[in-house]
Design a protein that fits this description.
Layout (H helix, E strand, L loop, with lengths): L3 E8 L6 H11 L3 E13 L2 E7 L2 H14 L4 E4 L5 H11 L7 E3 L14 H11 L5 E2 L3 H8 L7 H12 L5 E5 L10 E4 L4 E4 L12 H14 L4 H17 L25
Parallel strand pairs: 1-2, 1-4, 4-5, 5-6, 6-7
Antiparallel strand pairs: 2-3, 7-8, 8-9
């Protein structure tokens, strides 16, 4: 049976991030993708020039419509924009607590634009985070949620991952792309365990939407029945290939997108 995955996030009209990236990543990872929009953005590979928020009640209506008719096997939460939308999402998902939730705390766009208003940070930390099965912060996001300095070492990453677990999330994937050096290690942290995923740093500017893509691939893999460690390995392998073959695309002049369907079509034959 093909699983169904619901993404709750904002729209990127350039197709590299947000809902558009989520749908591609979920589909490429073998699940049926559904989407409830929290915001419309005006953006391209060079940056975000405008944000139009969806009314919170309509966000709830979208989610309710899905659950009224369709089985949902996993949920990905991305851009929530403000506190009212965050509360609306939490209220809509509260009756469905047994479904795996991947929370990607989208705060800042690749070009530097703020995608999460300050009043939403506390709601994300106090309400949505405890509902999540797996959270995927990069190092600045983790530090912002915890009110501490950005992790600079592997020990810092583990410590901050465990601090986030103490706030209620089951598992945290600390993304180490902001560490200095040639390596880009990630660690999957629970209260009791740490699993490292080693990777070299790929020199490319085609990284628009990598966080959206990874969290959506994770949701699809969890929906297929994999545990967090195996799901993370599969999702990271998928994203690594999408980045490695992003040069096959010709999209924009800034931070280009990853190649979500590299396994399905490519200029490399």
């Amino acid at each position: 049976m093909i699983p169904n995955v619901l993404s709750i996030a904002g729209s990127d009209p350039s197709g590299g991030a947000g809902i558009q990236a989520d749908i591609k990543a979920i589909s490429a990872n073998g699940a049926f993708a559904m989407a409830a929009l929290t915001a419309l953005t005006a953006q391209n590979t060079q940056g975000v020039t405008g944000i139009h928020l969806v009314p919170p009640e309509f966000v709830k209506d979208q989610i309710a419509a899905i659950f009224a008719d369709i089985r949902v096997d996993a949920i990905k939460i991305g851009m929530i924009a403000n506190a009212d939308i965050a509360v609306a999402v939490a209220q809509a998902l509260e009756p469905h607590a047994t479904i795996p939730i991947v929370l990607d705390p989208v705060m800042i766009a690749k070009g530097g634009a703020a995608l999460l208003q300050p009043d939403a940070v506390q709601v994300l930390r106090d309400v949505l985070l405890p509902m999540a099965t797996l959270m995927t912060p990069n190092l600045p996001e983790a530090a912002h949620l915890l009110g501490c300095d950005i992790a600079e070492t592997r020990d810092d990453m583990v410590g901050q991952g465990r601090a986030l677990c103490a706030l209620g999330v089951e598992t945290v994937l600390m993304k180490g792309g902001h560490l200095d050096g040639p390596e880009s290690p990630d660690c999957l942290v629970t209260t009791d365990t740490v699993t490292w995923y080693e990777a070299g740093r790929t020199q490319t500017q085609n990284t628009h939407g990598t966080g959206c893509t990874l969290s959506s691939a994770l949701a699809a893999q969890l929906a297929k029945g994999l545990g967090p460690e195996a799901a993370t390995a599969a999702a990271k392998s998928y994203v690594a290939r999408a980045i490695a073959q992003a040069g096959d695309l010709s999209v924009g002049t800034g931070h280009g997108p990853t190649h979500h369907f590299a396994a399905h079509y490519s200029t490399r034959g």
